[in-house]
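User: Small ask, check this?
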Amino acid sequence: MNRQLLKRESKTLLHQHYSFFFILFIPIFLLTLFTGVMNLPWWNTPTDVWNSTDTGSLLLNLLLSLVSVGVNFVLIDLFRDQATATQPLKKSMTIFTNAHYVLGVIVIGIIQFIFIVLWMILLIIPGIVKSIAYSQAYYIYRDALDHGHGISYLDAITQSRYLMNGHKMDYFILSLSFIGWMLLVIITCGIALLYVQPYFSLTFANFYCTLRDQEAQPSHA
Protein backbone atom coordinates (compact mmCIF):
# COMPACT_ATOMS: atom_id res chain seq x y z
CA MET A 1 0.00 0.00 0.00
CA ASN A 2 1.60 3.24 -1.18
CA ARG A 3 0.61 5.80 1.45
CA GLN A 4 2.15 8.76 -0.38
CA LEU A 5 0.29 7.85 -3.59
CA LEU A 6 -3.04 7.55 -1.76
CA LYS A 7 -2.63 10.99 -0.24
CA ARG A 8 -1.33 12.56 -3.45
CA GLU A 9 -4.26 11.25 -5.50
CA SER A 10 -6.70 12.41 -2.83
CA LYS A 11 -5.17 15.86 -2.58
CA THR A 12 -5.22 16.24 -6.37
CA LEU A 13 -8.92 15.36 -6.52
CA LEU A 14 -9.64 17.74 -3.64
CA HIS A 15 -7.83 20.63 -5.33
CA GLN A 16 -9.59 20.00 -8.64
CA HIS A 17 -13.07 20.16 -7.10
CA TYR A 18 -12.67 21.93 -3.77
CA SER A 19 -15.89 23.94 -4.06
CA PHE A 20 -17.79 20.68 -4.59
CA PHE A 21 -16.21 19.02 -1.56
CA PHE A 22 -16.68 22.10 0.60
CA ILE A 23 -20.44 22.09 -0.07
CA LEU A 24 -20.59 18.28 0.17
CA PHE A 25 -19.15 18.46 3.69
CA ILE A 26 -21.25 21.42 4.90
CA PRO A 27 -23.83 19.16 6.65
CA ILE A 28 -20.97 17.35 8.42
CA PHE A 29 -19.36 20.64 9.48
CA LEU A 30 -22.68 21.96 10.82
CA LEU A 31 -23.59 18.74 12.64
CA THR A 32 -20.12 18.60 14.18
CA LEU A 33 -20.54 22.19 15.36
CA PHE A 34 -24.02 21.60 16.80
CA THR A 35 -22.89 18.42 18.54
CA GLY A 36 -19.95 20.24 20.10
CA VAL A 37 -22.17 23.08 21.32
CA MET A 38 -24.66 20.69 22.90
CA ASN A 39 -21.84 18.97 24.79
CA LEU A 40 -20.64 22.22 26.37
CA PRO A 41 -21.12 22.28 30.19
CA TRP A 42 -23.23 25.43 30.17
CA TRP A 43 -25.67 23.88 27.71
CA ASN A 44 -26.85 21.32 30.27
CA THR A 45 -28.74 22.74 33.24
CA PRO A 46 -29.97 21.18 36.50
CA THR A 47 -33.54 21.88 35.37
CA ASP A 48 -33.09 19.56 32.41
CA VAL A 49 -35.34 16.97 34.05
CA TRP A 50 -35.95 14.88 30.96
CA ASN A 51 -32.33 14.98 29.81
CA SER A 52 -33.51 16.40 26.50
CA THR A 53 -30.02 17.68 25.66
CA ASP A 54 -28.59 14.19 26.17
CA THR A 55 -31.22 12.80 23.82
CA GLY A 56 -30.61 15.61 21.36
CA SER A 57 -26.86 15.04 21.48
CA LEU A 58 -27.36 11.31 20.89
CA LEU A 59 -29.61 11.96 17.89
CA LEU A 60 -27.18 14.52 16.48
CA ASN A 61 -24.30 12.05 16.83
CA LEU A 62 -26.35 9.38 15.08
CA LEU A 63 -27.25 11.79 12.28
CA LEU A 64 -23.62 12.87 11.99
CA SER A 65 -22.49 9.24 11.70
CA LEU A 66 -25.10 8.49 9.03
CA VAL A 67 -24.32 11.56 6.94
CA SER A 68 -20.55 10.96 7.26
CA VAL A 69 -20.81 7.38 6.01
CA GLY A 70 -23.08 8.53 3.17
CA VAL A 71 -20.54 11.17 2.13
CA ASN A 72 -17.85 8.48 2.17
CA PHE A 73 -20.02 6.48 -0.23
CA VAL A 74 -19.91 9.46 -2.59
CA LEU A 75 -16.13 9.74 -2.29
CA ILE A 76 -15.74 6.05 -3.11
CA ASP A 77 -17.95 6.48 -6.18
CA LEU A 78 -15.85 9.44 -7.32
CA PHE A 79 -12.66 7.39 -7.17
CA ARG A 80 -14.42 4.66 -9.13
CA ASP A 81 -15.68 7.14 -11.74
CA GLN A 82 -19.24 6.14 -10.82
CA ALA A 83 -20.19 9.68 -9.80
CA THR A 84 -19.46 13.23 -10.89
CA ALA A 85 -18.54 16.29 -8.84
CA THR A 86 -21.98 17.86 -9.21
CA GLN A 87 -25.02 18.48 -6.96
CA PRO A 88 -22.98 18.33 -3.72
CA LEU A 89 -25.83 19.10 -1.32
CA LYS A 90 -28.00 16.40 -2.85
CA LYS A 91 -25.12 13.92 -2.74
CA SER A 92 -24.43 14.76 0.91
CA MET A 93 -27.75 13.06 1.73
CA THR A 94 -26.84 9.86 -0.16
CA ILE A 95 -27.29 7.72 2.96
CA PHE A 96 -31.02 8.50 2.95
CA THR A 97 -31.59 7.38 -0.64
CA ASN A 98 -31.85 3.77 0.50
CA ALA A 99 -33.43 2.61 3.77
CA HIS A 100 -31.10 -0.40 3.73
CA TYR A 101 -28.12 1.98 3.88
CA VAL A 102 -29.50 3.63 7.01
CA LEU A 103 -30.41 0.39 8.74
CA GLY A 104 -27.12 -1.21 7.74
CA VAL A 105 -25.02 1.62 9.17
CA ILE A 106 -26.98 1.64 12.42
CA VAL A 107 -26.96 -2.12 13.00
CA ILE A 108 -23.36 -2.65 11.88
CA GLY A 109 -22.32 0.26 14.09
CA ILE A 110 -24.05 -1.30 17.10
CA ILE A 111 -22.48 -4.72 16.45
CA GLN A 112 -19.05 -3.15 16.00
CA PHE A 113 -19.46 -1.22 19.25
CA ILE A 114 -20.38 -4.38 21.17
CA PHE A 115 -17.47 -6.36 19.71
CA ILE A 116 -14.96 -3.57 20.34
CA VAL A 117 -16.12 -3.06 23.93
CA LEU A 118 -15.77 -6.80 24.58
CA TRP A 119 -12.23 -6.72 23.20
CA MET A 120 -11.45 -3.60 25.23
CA ILE A 121 -12.45 -5.46 28.39
CA LEU A 122 -9.50 -7.76 27.75
CA LEU A 123 -6.96 -5.14 26.69
CA ILE A 124 -6.96 -1.72 25.02
CA ILE A 125 -4.69 -2.66 22.11
CA PRO A 126 -6.79 -5.64 20.89
CA GLY A 127 -9.80 -3.32 20.90
CA ILE A 128 -7.98 -0.81 18.70
CA VAL A 129 -6.81 -3.56 16.35
CA LYS A 130 -10.35 -4.90 16.00
CA SER A 131 -11.79 -1.44 15.37
CA ILE A 132 -9.37 -1.11 12.45
CA ALA A 133 -10.25 -4.61 11.24
CA TYR A 134 -13.97 -3.72 11.19
CA SER A 135 -13.46 -0.29 9.60
CA GLN A 136 -14.48 -1.25 6.06
CA ALA A 137 -17.72 -3.04 6.95
CA TYR A 138 -20.09 -0.20 5.97
CA TYR A 139 -18.60 0.05 2.49
CA ILE A 140 -18.55 -3.70 1.93
CA TYR A 141 -22.21 -3.91 2.96
CA ARG A 142 -23.16 -1.08 0.62
CA ASP A 143 -21.19 -2.57 -2.31
CA ALA A 144 -23.01 -5.87 -1.84
CA LEU A 145 -26.39 -4.12 -1.81
CA ASP A 146 -25.59 -2.11 -4.93
CA HIS A 147 -24.51 -5.25 -6.77
CA GLY A 148 -27.80 -6.97 -5.98
CA HIS A 149 -26.47 -9.62 -3.61
CA GLY A 150 -26.99 -8.22 -0.14
CA ILE A 151 -25.12 -9.76 2.75
CA SER A 152 -25.83 -9.92 6.47
CA TYR A 153 -24.47 -7.35 8.88
CA LEU A 154 -22.17 -9.91 10.47
CA ASP A 155 -20.92 -11.00 7.04
CA ALA A 156 -19.99 -7.40 6.29
CA ILE A 157 -17.91 -7.26 9.46
CA THR A 158 -16.34 -10.65 8.72
CA GLN A 159 -15.46 -9.62 5.16
CA SER A 160 -13.94 -6.42 6.52
CA ARG A 161 -11.68 -8.50 8.77
CA TYR A 162 -10.57 -10.57 5.78
CA LEU A 163 -10.06 -7.49 3.60
CA MET A 164 -7.92 -5.84 6.29
CA ASN A 165 -5.69 -8.88 6.80
CA GLY A 166 -2.15 -7.62 6.26
CA HIS A 167 -3.35 -4.01 5.96
CA LYS A 168 -4.21 -3.01 9.52
CA MET A 169 -0.77 -1.48 10.04
CA ASP A 170 -1.13 0.37 6.72
CA TYR A 171 -4.39 1.85 8.02
CA PHE A 172 -2.85 2.75 11.37
CA ILE A 173 0.20 4.45 9.84
CA LEU A 174 -2.01 6.28 7.34
CA SER A 175 -4.05 7.61 10.27
CA LEU A 176 -0.89 8.69 12.11
CA SER A 177 0.29 10.57 9.02
CA PHE A 178 -2.53 13.07 9.62
CA ILE A 179 -1.38 14.04 13.13
CA GLY A 180 0.23 17.22 11.83
CA TRP A 181 -2.99 18.18 10.08
CA MET A 182 -5.01 17.51 13.22
CA LEU A 183 -2.68 19.76 15.20
CA LEU A 184 -3.30 22.45 12.60
CA VAL A 185 -7.05 22.03 13.16
CA ILE A 186 -6.52 22.58 16.90
CA ILE A 187 -4.24 25.59 16.37
CA THR A 188 -6.76 27.23 14.02
CA CYS A 189 -9.67 26.51 16.39
CA GLY A 190 -11.24 24.16 13.86
CA ILE A 191 -11.02 26.40 10.79
CA ALA A 192 -8.49 24.11 9.08
CA LEU A 193 -11.08 21.33 9.31
CA LEU A 194 -12.70 22.86 6.21
CA TYR A 195 -9.73 21.48 4.28
CA VAL A 196 -8.49 18.65 6.46
CA GLN A 197 -11.81 16.77 6.80
CA PRO A 198 -12.36 16.32 3.03
CA TYR A 199 -8.66 15.48 2.55
CA PHE A 200 -8.74 12.88 5.34
CA SER A 201 -12.00 11.31 4.14
CA LEU A 202 -10.88 11.22 0.51
CA THR A 203 -7.66 9.47 1.50
CA PHE A 204 -9.47 6.71 3.36
CA ALA A 205 -12.04 6.33 0.58
CA ASN A 206 -9.07 5.87 -1.74
CA PHE A 207 -7.65 3.34 0.73
CA TYR A 208 -10.84 1.26 0.50
CA CYS A 209 -10.98 1.43 -3.31
CA THR A 210 -7.34 0.39 -3.54
CA LEU A 211 -7.91 -2.58 -1.22
CA ARG A 212 -10.88 -3.77 -3.27
CA ASP A 213 -8.92 -3.37 -6.51
CA GLN A 214 -6.07 -5.42 -5.07
CA GLU A 215 -8.55 -8.05 -3.89
CA ALA A 216 -10.01 -8.31 -7.39
CA GLN A 217 -6.62 -8.86 -9.02
CA PRO A 218 -5.86 -12.53 -9.72
CA SER A 219 -3.04 -13.94 -7.65
CA HIS A 220 -0.10 -15.50 -9.44
CA ALA A 221 1.54 -18.65 -8.21
About this structure: The mean pLDDT is 90. The chain is about 75% helix and 0% strand.
